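QUALITY CONTROL LOG
STEP: pairwise intake check
CHECKER ROLE: data steward
CRITERIA: each record must contain a sequence immediately followed by its structure tokens, with no blank fields

ENTRY 1 OF 2
RESULT FIELD BELOW
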Amino acid sequence: MKKIIVTGIGPGSREDITPAVMEAVSKADVVVGYKYYFQFVEQYLKPGCQCIDTGMKKERERAQQAFQLAEQDNTVVVISSGDAGIYGMTPLIYEMKQAHHSDVEIVTLPGISAFQKAASLLGAPIGHDMCIISLSDLMTPWEVIERRIKAAADGDFVTAIYNPKSHGRYWQLYRLVELFLKVRSADTPVGYVRQAGREEQEVKVTSLGAFDPEDVDMFTVILIGNSQSYIADGKMITPRGYYREEQMEDVKPGQQIMIESFRTIASELKNDYPLDHLWALLHAIHTTADFEMEQILYTDDKAVEKLYNKVKDGTLKTIITDVTMVTSGIRKGALQRLGIEAKCYLSDPRVAEMATSLGITRTQAGIRLAVEEHPDALFAFGNAPTALMELCDLIRKGKAKPAGIIAAPVGFVHVRESKHMVKPFKDIPKIIVEGRKGGSNLAATLCNAILTFDDAEQLKPGRDL
């Protein structure tokens, strides 16, 4: 019978050869492969079975010989390490069959791939969507490989790396790490296994930022985790999401949408940030769909955390806003849960009288009244730069000692200047949307970020929706 059976014999140990492959090898008239691999199958060969080696990098010659022998009515088994369909002989055999219009029957048997063996040794790193990339540019232009690397990194795939390095290819792995670090956290888990399944086996777990390309060679398989991967007890784990589903059982539809939105935003950020700043940034981008917030949102060190702690210990009880739209955007559930009052003085009858008599804006007058009654409040500005400037003047005169300031007025007149005026107050925690951008929605969502900071670590916003 004219037949070629293409098999994968696993990564390198007899224990990883499948029973189907063992049976095929035991019935072969001829086994064709690289001579190093014969040691793993010789005990299964029937008497008289011929082993043919064409040497390293002689894949085409190997395939041609397999066809020639099969044409002579031999049952030919072509062996590759790992799975023959993954960077192995299977595609070449099928291509050659088509090119030569051969009537030889082709059968393929899967094997345990090197990335699967490496994954089992590392723990559970491939529990979610993944891809495999070879860094060998012998038959694939580097430009194509680099494009695939960027797609894998951007797509948040768990990524297995084959052929990471050789004597002639020393820089490609460095470039891959550079590309991944542009979009992935330096804390992203990385695991790598050298000589998987063989006596020389080495297993290591580290992070993307600490990974040293000099520690690998051509016999190493590397696995880079995704944004959800983590290391526990020395093992690399990429969760499928079962526990997350369990944790989300009490989540309402609106909150679920917000959670997914935050995760999407987090995956698209260009840089890593401390949790405190990140929480405010995620709220700002979620509200505006504007990723420029990554450049223009400023927070003092631990400003969000400090203000949340003031809420928690009861020293911050009032939020003052420049306009009613900011007050309306602060979640009522959060205010009620925490015992916080949010106030805007624009509708106070005293405001119009003061503004007229003193020749100032109504928002300025509102801030003056607010400071008289709540000098230690959190002040949030989303509209009026004159109101923010008024607060700065009152602080300098010693009449106001705000718990914190959210400076997000929007517009073209005095807007930038009002924000510059806030920064010198070093002892007051500040969140500032720099430049002309801002708005009542931003000021409100930054208040909400403060009130829900205890949800930040779990990335679980929207509790009070």
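ENTRY 2 OF 2
RESULT FIELD BELOW
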Amino acid sequence: MTNIEKYYNKFHEEHRLTTRHGQVEFRTTLHFIEEAAKMVGSQNGAGSLSTFSAEKTATPLKIADIGAGTGRYSVELCHRGYDVTAVELVKHNLEILRSKHENIKTWQGDARNLQFLDDQTFDITLLFGPLYHLHTDQEKLKALCEAKRITKKGGIILVAYVMNEYSVISYCFKEHKWEQVAQKGGLSADFHTICTEQDLYDYVRLEDINRLNAAAGVERIKIISADGAADYMRRELNEMSEQEFEAFCSFQLAIAERPELVGAGSHCVDILIKN
């Protein structure tokens, strides 16, 4: 069993995106998935349930959710009328996903090798978990290139990353672990984290993402902050009234594309097109 499998067998993945800080990330990301669907759907006449239910002959968009976890996105997108295929490495997570929705096609597999999925099959491909855990450009590129391979020409790939500055602020300084991390050689002179295969996560900066995109030959449409300050404000979010929390979610959606804020939160989502 890999370190990732051991971790997710214990980690309450089902709960993470239902917390208030998780809801901010989930709701913001769904907005941009739907935006991508409208872009692709305008090219081929397909779309979400609200689009194709009015025209019975239209075909729903095909979405691949690679690293689907317990299916938070897969299930919601299936409910919205998309044709969803989910791939998940961890058997425990996959069993939970399968128990939720029988109409989702599921595979147990590694994002770096999707040989069971055909070339140019999907209108939209989500790569929301795998690049958190791959530690070298070479390994990340395997997953990114596989996502590109299975996506149709003109299709859209959404890729999530965990961000370097969030990890340094929240772990090194907020939790007072700077000295421990520095002593083991976990930080460069300019405070970029230096992760090894023994570390569960790998953290990136925008220049790292740009380098991967250039190597994979994909073009960016936009890059967004999925959660902004939400992960820094867990207690404050929990203290908010429903009305105030709704206002915060609207605030995050309004600022998600601001270039001065992308990279400052815990996650960003890179939205790419396959030309």
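INTAKE CHECK: passed for both entries
DESCRIPTIVE NOTE, ENTRY 2: Confidence is low (pLDDT under 50) at residues 47-57.
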